[in-house]
Write a structure and sequence with these properties.
- There is one protein chain.
- This protein has one domain: Beta-lactamase Inhibitory Protein, Chain:B, domain 1 (2-Layer Sandwich), CATH 3.30.1450.10.
- The protein contains three helices and five strands; from the N terminus they run H-E-H-H-E-E-E-E.
- The chain is elongated, with a radius of gyration of 25 Å.
- It has about 100 residues and is an alpha+beta fold.
- A hairpin with a 2-residue loop joins strand 4 and strand 5.
- Strands 1, 2, 3, 4 and 5 form a five-stranded antiparallel β-sheet that branches.
- It comes from Marinomonas pontica.
- Keywords: Cell outer membrane, Lipoprotein, Membrane, Palmitate, Signal.
């Protein structure tokens, strides 16, 4: 009798957890939000300071490739209507302080 009551209580307790709504997850956005307008203004031949003025500081500057700037954007648990970046991964390559290559992944 005790085992039956214990099993019944355990089953009801575990089943009650599914009645609650899922926990709130805080939306997390990290990186540089780059718009299509900013991307259209980006041109080969711009200096590093012009690119920094236009896009801001890069999210990542590689230690072994200091002339390669990475602009990254990620978002977790955001609402579908939340403002997002038009570009998730942008790589800019400089040569002697001048933008020579744009890679938009």
């Amino acid at each position: 009798m005790k085992k039956t009551v214990l099993i019944l209580c355990a089953a009801l307790s575990l089943g009650a957890c599914s009645l609650f709504p899922p926990p709130y997850k805080v939306p997390v956005s990290q990186g540089n939000q780059i718009t299509k307008d900013q991307l259209s203004q980006l041109q080969i031949g711009m200096s590093e300071s012009q690119v920094t003025y236009l896009l801001g500081n890069p999210m990542l500057r590689d230690t072994f490739k200091p002339n390669e700037w990475h602009y990254l954007y990620t978002s977790l648990y955001t609402a579908p209507d939340a403002k997002k970046s038009d570009v998730d991964d942008l790589v800019l390559i400089f040569n002697n302080g001048v933008l020579t290559e744009i890679k938009n992944n």
